[in-house]
Design a protein that fits this description.
Strand order of the largest sheet: 3-2-1-4
Order of helices and strands: HEHEHEHHEHHHHHH
Distance between the termini: 37 Å
CATH architecture of the largest domain: Up-down Bundle
């Protein structure tokens, strides 16, 4: 068993400990690993706003075991613990090629709380990772345009849709870092600061959207359409960077 990270607030540590204690008490326990992932694992959380995300890996999930966990989850939810992501060891292996970005996020930004690290035996196919990065970024670009039209191009719509788009973009950026053998460790701020030196794509607008998301800055009604236009251009540049990677010999 690994210790709960020291950077977590005491209330969050207690909530996680309550979950672990309750899981250990279950009869015929099939669990082989419990991991913390997401914002609390990478130290990029907002207290009272971020969810506590747990991954449970088990040999199987018998119906009676799931039924016992249900009432426990109702109590965990009050402490900010969302329903755990539950996979069998075989499901984890079988899903790597289908959801490489999601599992890469969990592998790189997780803390082992109990059991054996299930990702040690997992090996991602870089071709699968590149395909999903392209799919997600292209889809992001299309959704941003669509939501802009749905919001009539109003500044209020821009202020809402850009932070949502950025959250969806972050796993793709980390995935592209991996393809270039660059470790994407650190907070969201740190990752975005590395976009320009690593991917050769200007990162200024990404950092501006992050500041807006955090409430640090609020662009005016005149500036928001310009911010939107520059953000779209950055998404296009990321797509072009992927095309360069597809043409490279090592991918």
């Amino acid at each position: 068993m690994s210790p709960i990270p020291e950077h977590l607030p005491s209330s969050i540590s207690r909530a996680i400990q309550h979950v672990l204690t309750a899981l250990r008490k279950q009869k015929n326990n099939p669990i082989t690993a419990v991991m913390l992932y997401g914002s609390y694992a990478r130290g990029d959380f907002v207290v009272d706003r971020s969810n506590i995300n747990l991954l449970i890996v088990a040999t199987d999930y018998p119906l009676e075991w799931l039924q016992r966990i249900g009432p426990l989850q109702a109590r965990w939810r009050k402490d900010g613990v969302v329903a755990p992501l539950m996979l069998t060891e075989q499901e984890l292996q079988d899903s790597l090629g289908l959801f490489p970005l999601e599992f890469l996020e969990m592998k790189d930004q997780s803390v082992l709380l109990e059991g054996q690290d299930p990702f040690l035996a997992c090996h991602l196919n870089l071709a699968h990772l590149l395909v999903q990065c392209e799919q997600e970024i292209r889809g992001n670009l299309l959704r941003v345009r669509q939501r802009f039209v749905e919001g009539w191009g109003r500044p209020e719509a821009i202020q809402t849709l850009l932070p949502i788009s950025l959250v969806a973009l972050l796993p793709c950026i980390r995935g592209l870092f991996h393809l270039l053998n660059h470790s994407p460790d650190g907070t969201t701020q740190t990752v975005l600061e590395q976009v320009e030196p690593v991917l050769n794509v200007k990162n200024e607008v990404l950092l501006e959207v992050l500041s807006m998301k955090r409430g640090v800055s609020t662009p005016g009604r005149i500036e928001l359409p310009r911010l939107f236009e520059r953000y779209l251009e950055t998404l296009k540049n990321l797509v072009n960077r992927i095309q360069d990677l597809k043409r490279s010999e090592h991918l």
